[in-house]
Design brief:
Oligomer: heterodimer
Helix content of chain A: 25-40%
Strand content of chain A: 25-35%
Low-confidence stretches of chain A: none
Radius of gyration of chain A: 19 Å
Shape of chain A: globular
Strand order of the largest sheet of chain B: 2-1-3-4
Helix content of chain B: 55-70%
Number of strands of chain B: 4
Mean pLDDT of chain B: 84
Order of helices and strands of chain A: EEEHEEHEHHHEHEHEEHH
Strand order of the largest sheet of chain A: 6-7-8-3-9-10
Radius of gyration of chain B: 29 Å
Distance between the termini of chain A: 37 Å
Number of helices of chain B: 15
Strand content of chain B: 5-15%
Order of helices and strands of chain B: HHEHEHEHEHHHHHHHHHH
Largest sheet of chain B: 4 strands, mixed
Low-confidence stretches of chain B: none
Number of strands of chain A: 10
Amino acid sequence: MPIIEIENFTKTYPLPDNKNETFCAVDNVSLLIEMGEVFGILGPNGAGKTTTLEMLEGLNDIDGGHATIDGIDVQSYPFKIKEIIGVQLQASEYFDNLSLVELLTLFGALYSRDIDPTTLLEKVQLLDKAKAKPANLSGGQKQRFSIACALVNEPKVLFLDEPTTGLDPQAKRNIWDLVQDLNNNGMTIVLTTHNMEEAESLCHRIAIMDHGKIVAEGTPQNLILLHAPEPPEAPLHGNLEDVFLVLTGHALRD
Amino acid sequence: MKKVILSKLQLHLSKVFLMIFLRDRQSIFFSLFFPIIFMTVFGFVNNGQQEPLDIGVVNESDSVVAADFVQQLKDSLVFNVTIGTEGLLRSELEEGDQTMVLVIPEIFNTANLDRQSVELRILVDAAQLAQLSLVMPLLEQTLIEIEREFRETEPMFSLIIEDVQARSQSYLDFLLPGLMAFTLMQLSIAGSGYNIIEFRRKGILKRLFVTPIQPKDFITAIVLARTTIVLTQLVVLITFAILVLDVQIIGSFAAFFFVVILGTFIFLNLGFCLGSIAKTQQAAIMIGNIVIFPQIFLSGVFYPIESMPEFVQPVANVLPLSFVSTGMRDIANEGVSLLAIMPSLIGIAVWLVVSYVLATRLFVWKEVAN
């Protein structure tokens, strides 16, 4: 049963060097995301992944199309949506001079919930940092803390925007374990990533975006079967990165 | 009237804002440092009387009258007299150590004074001409007194100065309300304006936006926290001024702080406008200065608006800080009631409405957060 239904999402922006013309950052995107799955959105920089997420989260206006999360219309009931989603943004800092516990308590208050910060910190293995300030955390710890903040309202859907970008392999695997663990407990997770290994090992299904459009969608296995370049021998070969490059080309993006 | 109930979230968020402020020791220190230093310096410098003027006297006459004249100058509190040769004092004048040099000629003696008027030369530095207009009447006065004594005539008139104000008022008494108004403006604009821009730059507002917090909760929390901060800082300042600097507040504290709170609301509103318009910290500081600077000079914080050039007064009089500082000063210095400062209160009310309307128009949660 789909928990997120996106129909014909469109977002246009004026061109940076010619204000009279527009380009489609998100171009007629339709997606069904099943309850309880880990769904990955892949794509080169500027493909429209973050914009699509932000349209779902209410951060970005929806120029065309519509979407529902858990049957609630995203545009009509933004505050109802905010209650049931958890969001980890690509880059966000927190208030200075507040400890992790104080910040989590604050986030709880934003959802009118009395939460137990220690349970959440334990979940993301930051219990020993309870009194630390976010500024003093390492990259991986910061991401885990961001995820903890996104969990205070026990969301039905968790959005993670490039959760492992810039992390070392240990920290990256640690986030994967956390995501898997959350998913095992029934949470639907939508994430964007540039990391093919991450998409392959974490995601049940994947959509690859380029130029605002979805160019392929399916399980990692299926995508490899369908799109990986044919080698001279061996039935299954290549990897998801090959798929990605075949579909989006080798040209560098900004 | 609608009853205002603060939600648990609003209270929690205000507490968080207060905590953030309290932990920012530097910011607390400097917001108190400036007004305290300023008041203390003026408290000592402006201790009721003026600094004596340094004048050099070259006495070329050896007469008793000349010696008597020099003695009178020395006795005067207005002058700090140095006796010397013309050459030496002239170079001191050029270096700025003397305000002027008075040369008493050799012919300054009883015999000559009886027959003709004697010329006294005054050497001045053109840069000090402003001082000259202050000094000349005093010198002439001293000379007239000598002349009277000499001719044995009685003065026809004498002036007696009577203070109409029941209590003596120092510049510090005048300065304190203005300085407090200035401090509340700074703290308020920083609280809503600069903070919002900082929160946005860090992505904090975007993060808050994806939670169910309503903009009104966010705004209420900032207003509540900032008003608390402003009141506390001003209580510290006023306590320091009364206990250490012996400043007098004769009006009602309740009325005084009523005006303070209204003023805080005006500048918080203007701060919200600033935070919504300015996209970068740099822009905010520039736009903030446009709001703050003219008010520092024109709103009667450091000297009365009436002492300003005629043509700026109409503008100066309608600035928000003018209404606030005038209201606070009238209460503090003259001890009048709220009813008596109605003109200021009406001005404050108009600014409250204007700034509120502007702030609600400009502060669009989604745009401010992104």
